[in-house]
Hints:
66 residues
Amino acid sequence: MANIRKYDRVRSRFICDQVKSLNENGLNVYTVFDRCWSKIPDALIKKLTGEELSQYIRLHILPTEL
């Protein structure tokens, strides 16, 4: 249950941070986030905080999705 709330917190933060740059590239921010989230291992989701997950997505996963 806690991971669902963490998902929502990270998702809303990601959308706020990335919506402008992704829309400029013609990408849907929601589908990009879902693809990024699916690439994070479950153990890492449980270990990291919401802020750390946001940073992990931005630094390690998002560049490969663009």
